[in-house]
Write a structure and sequence with these properties.
- Chains A, B: This is Cyclic nucleotide-binding domain-containing protein.
- Chains A, B: InterPro entries: cNMP-bd_CS, cNMP-bd_dom, cNMP-bd_dom_sf, Env_Response_Regulators, RmlC-like_jellyroll.
- Chains A, B: Pfam families: cNMP_binding.
- The structure is a homodimer of 123-residue chains.
- With 123 residues, the first copy, chain A, is α+β, with helices and mostly antiparallel strands.
- Chain A has 3 helices and 8 strands.
- Chain A has a single domain, classed as Jelly Rolls (Sandwich).
- In chain A, strands 1-8-3-6 form a 4-stranded antiparallel sheet.
- In chain A, β4 and β5 form a beta hairpin.
- The two termini of chain A are 21 Å apart.
């Protein structure tokens, strides 16, 4: 079943985006974390060590793990192309979860899909 | 950091539990799913193929993946000891997510922790 995991609604024109050039490191495994990102444009690679976990495009989120469990970054994120990212702070994240249950469900879907992919890769 | 992922509040005395004998199969990988479970007592093993993904005790939840993404069961759950489980239907789950943001965050923490464990095992 196709699941809606688009977070495009969070990349509206009034929100300031952060830009990274192709090849730039957005964050590194082990970094302290206090925000997640929505991809406004471009593509991002998520790696653990040398292993690429996933590659993500427009309207995807990443960096949500560290926000959920208050642990350091579990992976490294790099810009594949030039990218524009909309940061979502921990405070904004908690607000979204509490005010919009649909947002919470979409974040859960992202996590569940990543677990399924990981389990299929290594199962 | 120790994270609260206890769902004991859902196993109150007024809720009817479902019992499984040690060794009994609770659900199988590929099964159609419409509920998650909270462990009221006992221990449960989660397996994908022959690989044990995790073993869970009292107040843990499992079976949440299929509820979140409406896919079949991603793993097989077996009773290690005699167990008592409190089922949570999809409807109850959606109600809990929408009414209690703290519940949503705890479910996200469970998923994030499982992803971290899986990534560490195979990273």
């Amino acid at each position: 079943m196709q699941q809606d995991t688009s977070f495009g609604v969070l990349t509206g024109n009034n929100i300031e985006a952060r830009s990274f050039k192709a090849g730039g490191v957005i964050f590194r495994e082990g970094d302290v974390a206090n925000e997640l990102f929505v991809i406004k444009s471009g593509q991002v690679r998520i790696q653990i060590g040398n292993r690429t976990v996933t590659e993500l495009g427009q309207e995807s989120i990443f960096g949500e793990m560290a926000l959920i469990d208050s642990e350091p970054r579990s992976a490294t994120a790099t810009a594949i192309t030039d990218v524009e990212l909309v940061p979502v702070s921990e405070k904004q994240f908690l607000f979204l979860v509490s005010q919009t249950p649909y947002f919470a469900l979409k974040v859960m879907r992202v996590l569940a899909q990543r677990l399924r992919v990981t389990n299929k890769t290594f199962g």
